[in-house]
Amino acid sequence: QVHVVESGGGLVQAGGSLRLSCTASASISSFNAMEWYRQAPGQQREYVALIRGVGSTHYADSAKGRFTISRDNAKNTVYLQIDSLKPEDSGVYYCKLHGNWRDFWGQGTQVTVSS
User: Fold this and answer.
1) What confidence score (pLDDT) does residue 51 get?
2) What is the 3 state secondary structure string of the chain?
């Protein structure tokens, strides 16, 4: 069993920034990719960004320009830097470790952006 823990969320005014962290209990180098998702109240969970084992990244259209995904293999941690936050960015942000046999999800971290 692999445990995934997200942190770094909070209440931020529009225009501010946050850096979310996702720490795994196993080496993140052993996973094909690590991804970030978010879910607003009453809405479906949506993909935000990913980083592959080789280091390449990809972003959803809604995240391009303001979101940056990165990792620290020594800390088994992937980060999501969010700049110029908007109220529409509010929601629970989840981290997913994409493995060969299954995916591992964290419990999420709440991001609330006030106007």
Assistant:
1) 97
2) CCCEEEECCEEEECCCCEEEEEEECCCHHHCCEEEEEEECCCCCCEEEEEEECCCCEEECCCCCCCEEEEEEHHHCEEEEEECCCCHHHCEEEEEEEECCCCEEECCCEEEEEEC
**Closest among 35, 44, 82, 40 to 63, alpha carbons compared:** 82
Chain position carrying tokens 């700049």: 83
**First vs last C-alpha separation in the chain:** 40
For the chain, list residues with pLDDT below 70.
Answer: none
- C-alpha distance from residue 30 to each of 27, 41, 55, 75 (Å): 6, 33, 13, 14
CB 1 within 8 A of CB 69: no
| Residue 83 in tokens | 């700049």
pLDDT at position 1, please?
Answer: 83
